[in-house]
Specification:
59% of the residues lie in helices and 15% in strands. Helix 17 packs antiparallel against helix 21. The mean pLDDT is 77. It folds into four domains: 183 residues, no CATH class; 160 residues, no CATH class; 201 residues, no CATH class; 139 residues, no CATH class. By secondary structure, it is an alpha+beta fold. It is built from 25 helices and 20 strands. Strands 11, 12, 13, 14, 15, 16, 17, 18, 19 and 20 form a ten-stranded mixed sheet that branches. Strands 2-3-8-5-7-6 form a six-stranded mixed barrel. InterPro entries: ABC3_permease_C, MacB_PCD, Macrolide_Exporter_MacB.
Length: 784
């Protein structure tokens, strides 16, 4: 068969295509395998808790310890029950921070302990706790340290007696966990409310045992361990689903970029074999036969690349699982579907080139120079359609109202399609502009070569525009959202750090201790009291920045009264809304404070952080300072900013790594285009050599071509990324009711993208340049 013979005799032409398919399919295969392994690990984590349990009884409501104890005794007396233990669950805030930790009671029966100790011992008394290893690392705590847990105004200071394994998972540590003794809920601790109480039962015949427990104990929340696991997994599937969706979305992007490259490659291959196809048509081959040959080539290439990619993806997932200590789970059905998708994408990618090949009349195909009139007409139609899509997409971004964000996302998608279709119109302009700055005959020849086939340059550039544009969109979006959030958080939380107690005075040394924390620029004490404003009894702070003729109130505080009554007097002043006043708090001048409460004490310290402060270390030191103070609360905008920045940085890091695959595929496309272009221009290169062009000049010409192709696609991608990043930031800011939107971008990150494109372009030109320079001019000119 002609198709298979073509593949055997010209394997170099398809290497880059197979590589692009391998990377695209391998990325998806690795994604579904990692997600499957993650799901299995999470399921094992849920199962581990009830691995030796036959029946789980969920106690509804927040029963007193006596009620739970009575129910436990009833269940223990049921026929078939071998053991039954209470299991408590609650959560509390770590004093000195805004971080929350979940507490679980340690079962008395060692057979029910679903995790092991990494260090130390299990907690025994009501004032002891064991932290998960990831949680301890995040809180900067070790065995022997103390931690204060607060909840609904009460608190408990606990000693860390041990560290427990939290499981090996990519999502480990997202929920901070700890273990406490049952006495934590039943003893003298100030926190004794369990948000969820269960009784773990070991017995025989789980289904029948569950029925007996329902009948004897008179409770409805009775499940077998299998039913319990199924319910819990459905509750926790959301996080895995979002993770899976994220991976699959970027996998689809990688496939799209790979598809663009495959289309481009087959367009070049068809152009190279134009005379061969014309000769086949002239000797009797039908259009259907030519089309079938190309489709068979695509099918074989797609199958080879997809199978290799599936194996590559599973191998990468195995390395990830080995690195984090996770068990590898390979979803055979999903892997087969991913491989089939790669084959389908490859076959679909060749339909356009195959249609173009069969529409060429045999006599036209035998001409030495192709007729460009049809291509020019097609280009004009694409440009017109692209212009309509871009204008329509930009118009959708101007829609306001409750569905503005939805319209903005749809508009950006439509606009992006238009920009991709229009690459044939604007990319040659970018190439010409970049080419105008190069000097010398070799450079001018390289510029001429890139502009001579605008269709090929546009197809190669489209992949780079898409890949680079997505990366820059994320970078600009993240930087702009950070700047926007900072501006709005500065308005919403004008104070970096606040340390307060609800009632009473802070210890005298608090201000000095906070001022000594590394990263704190200055600290200021504020007097505090309680006063009545109408029917509300509110906290009042005194600050020197407040004029004597007004009261500042939290903008979310609704009140119609203007008379503030304290322990030693009352004032009637206008209420002015200002975010300087903390939530549910009023702010007055020191003079007004003296009138309403002459005996007010320092109950709050405000602090300003240094611009270059290490927020993580600063918060750790603050926790150490305020930990001994009962009922203390740490707030301010610094923690909100840090959490927001950390979230954006993680999202940006993950998505940039994922999109790097698409950039890699696009850069491979540049190398493939250049390599095929060298094969297509064998006689031209030989003629240049015969006319006196040196081998090193030929290599330099090809390197300049590669850099121009890479840089033009990168420049266009950066421009599109800036546009979409800014539009996305505006849409999200409007949805979040941010008052102002700030534009920002990381110049070093964007410059890195451009540098990678230039270096990759030079590297991509090495092999084709060497091949062209080593070819004998006489032998090349003799080729037909």
């Amino acid at each position: 068969m002609i198709a298979l013979a073509e593949l055997r005799h010209n394997p170099r032409r398809i290497i880059a295509v197979v590589l692009a398919i391998m990377i695209s399919v391998g990325y998806l295969a690795a994604s579904v395998t990692v997600v499957a392994s993650e799901s299995a690990t999470m399921e094992r984590g849920v199962i581990a808790r009830v691995a030796n349990t036959d029946v789980v009884v969920t106690v509804a409501g927040q029963h007193a310890a006596e009620q739970n104890s009575g129910l436990l005794q009833q269940i223990r007396q049921v026929e078939g029950v071998e053991s039954a233990d209470l299991s408590y669950l609650s959560h509390g805030r770590v004093s000195g921070s805004s971080e929350w930790v979940q507490q679980q009671s340690v079962p008395d029966n060692p057979a029910l302990r679903w995790t092991g100790l990494a260090a130390g011992e299990w907690p025994q008394g009501p004032d002891e706790i064991a932290l998960g290893t990831v949680t301890a690392e995040q809180l900067n705590l070790a065995v022997g340290d103390q931690i204060t847990i607060s909840d609904t105004g009460s608190s408990a200071t606990l000693k860390v007696t041990g560290l427990t394994h939290e499981g090996n998972s990519l999502l480990s540590g997202l929920a901070q966990s700890s273990f406490v003794a049952p006495a934590f809920y039943t003893g003298a601790s100030t926190i004794r409310t369990s948000l969820q109480t269960e009784i773990l039962v070991i017995g025989v015949a789980p289904e029948r045992l569950a029925e007996k427990i329902r009948a004897v104990a008179g409770v409805s929340g009775v499940e077998t361990s299998a039913e319990f696991v199924q319910r819990k997994m459905s509750d926790q599937a959301g996080g895995v689903f979002v993770f899976q969706l994220l991976l699959l979305v970027f996998g689809a992007i990688a496939l799209l970029v790979g598809g663009i490259m495959i289309v481009n490659t087959f367009l070049v291959l068809v152009a190279q074999r134009r005379r061969q196809i014309g000769l086949l048509r002239a000797i009797g081959a039908s259009a259907a036969q030519v089309r079938r040959n190309l489709l068979v080539e695509a099918l074989v290439i797609g199958a080879v690349g997809s199978i290799a990619g599936a194996l590559l993806g599973v191998g990468v997932a195995a390395l990830v699982a080995l690195g984090i200590g996770e068990h590898l789970t390979v979803p055979i059905g999903q892997i087969a579907l991913v491989a089939a998708t790669g084959v389908v994408i490859t076959v679909l990618a060749v339909l356009g080139p195959a249609r173009r090949a069969t529409r060429i009349p045999p006599l036209d195909a035998l001409r030495p120079v192709a007729d460009r009139s049809t291509e020019r007409r097609s280009s004009r139609v694409r440009t017109a359609v692209a212009a309509v899509l871009v204008v329509g997409g930009l118009a959708l971004n101007t829609v306001e109202g409750p569905y503005a964000l939805l319209f903005a996302v749809g508009g950006q998608f439509v606009c992006a399609i238009g920009l991709l279709l229009a690459t044939g119109a604007y990319l040659p302009l970018v190439l010409r502009a970049l080419g105008s700055v190069v000097r010398g005959p070799v450079a001018r020849l390289a510029v001429s070569n890139t502009l001579r086939n605008p269709g090929r340059a546009a197809a190669t550039g489209a992949a780079l525009v898409l890949a680079v544009g997505l990366v820059v969109t994320l970078q600009v979006g993240a930087a702009s959202m950070k700047a926007t959030a900072n501006d709005n958080l500065d308005v919403r939380f004008p104070v970096d750090v606040t340390v307060s107690v609800f009632d009473g005075a802070l210890p005298a040394h608090t201000e000095a201790a906070i001022a000594k924390v590394v990263g704190i620029a200055e600290a200021e004490p504020l007097k505090a009291t309680r006063a009545a404003l109408g029917a509300a009894h509110l906290r009042v702070l005194a600050h020197e920045s407040v004029p004597d003729d007004r009261i500042l109130a939290d903008p979310y505080l609704a009140t119609s009264s203007t008379t503030l009554t304290g322990t030693t007097g009352a004032v009637t002043l206008p209420i002015v809304q200002d975010f300087l006043a903390p939530a549910d708090t009023l702010l007055v001048s020191p003079a007004v404070m003296e009138r309403i409460d002459a005996n007010a004490v320092v109950g709050t310290v405000w602090a300003k952080a240094s611009p270059d402060a290490d927020i993580t270390e600063l918060r750790a030191q603050l926790r150490a300072v305020v930990a001994p103070i009962p009922g203390v609360e740490v707030g301010g905008g610094l923690s909100a900013k840090a959490s927001y920045h950390e979230f954006l940085d993680r999202i940006l890091l993950v998505t940039t790594m994922l999109l790097a695959v698409a950039v890699l595929i696009a850069l491979i496309g540049v190398g493939n285009t250049l390599s095929l272009s060298v094969l297509e221009r064998t006689r031209e290169s030989a003629l240049l050599r015969a006319l006196g062009l040196q081998g090193h000049d030929l290599r330099r010409m090809l390197a300049i071509e590669a850099v121009l192709l890479s840089l033009s696609g990168t420049v266009a991608g950066i421009g599109a990324g800036v546009l979409f990043g800014w539009a996305g930031t505006r849409a999200i800011s409007a949805e979040l009711n941010f008052r102002d939107t700030a534009f920002a971008m990381s110049v070093p990150q964007t410059a890195t993208v451009a540098a990678v494109a230039i270096v990759a372009g030079v590297v991509a030109s090495i092999m084709p340049g060497r091949r062209a320079a080593r070819a004998s001019p006489v032998a090349a000119l003799a080729e037909e």
